[in-house]
Predict the 3D structure of the following.
Amino acid sequence: MLTGTNSTLFIRHLAFTKPTDFLRERDFSQKIEATFDFIRVHATPLGRVLATLVLPLALVTGIGVGLLQGQMLSTFGDMTRQARLGLPRDILPPIFTSPSLWITMLGGLLLFVVLHLVVYGYVVLRASKTDSDAPVTPAEVWALVKSRFLGMVGSFIGLGVLFIVGMMAVGLLIGLFSVALAAVAGAWVGIVAVLAIYLFMIYAMVALSLYFVVWLREERGFFGSIRRCFQLVWGKWWSTFGLIMVMFLMLWLIMVLVLVVLSTAGLPFTDLMSGRSTDLSPLVRVLFIVYSAIQTLISLVFYPLIMIAISFQYFNLVERRDGEGTRLLVDSIGQTAPTAAPQALRPDDEGEY
């Protein structure tokens, strides 16, 4: 058994090509390390899958967002000029009745669904392969996307409805508690009850962050996946919450720095954004669309990292609760070790232990 520094090095240099590489108990720092190590090892095959299945839809959505933003800024500029000249305003701005708005929203939903299926699908397929030499191909991921697409859309809609119903229930309970408890025990009790309700909502949202990987890997139904999420998070909510927050803040800071640099390059569009320019050349409009599309693509680059971190938290919780990785290691005792072909040493190769 490896201990201390050797154990950390062993985890850090896993190839992530067999189930036991994923199904491991990991502490907080090891989950973050595993996330970036997975990207380091699988950047090329995962990037190939993303470029094949997600990039075209992301480009179309980014262009749609650019067109929509241009139309919105043009509409706001018209509204500003109408107010300046004292002209009557439209009751409903044209942007809200434009087909581009609804097409862009639909494209964003499809992009969100496909991105979740591709990233989580790649991780699940890689973690389920017993042959470490068998790669995950875009065809395999595409087959998974096609077979689970409608179910994923239904899950998004179901979670959205559940969230809306939950918020309505929170509002109703807030009203009831505020009236009843304030009259009986004072206003401070009502405030405590409202805070408790919101804390439960936060607890539920963190637990449901595991929903998509649970639903995809364990092939449970909608309510079965929700129940499984709460079972896994029980007793490990703070570590799940902390991992999500640390990854989100880390990637958010990086993304903000990148977008600040990109926004500096977008300063020529200030006239368009402020509505002061009324005569814009087609070239300026095209550049603005390209600029908005690049912003959308940059935002999508960092989101898969959070999804992969959530995946490693899921595998960690599954191993702690069910011991799947330990059973796989026990079952492999006595089996003939695979014959490894001679390979050239890599700079990061530390040998076998």
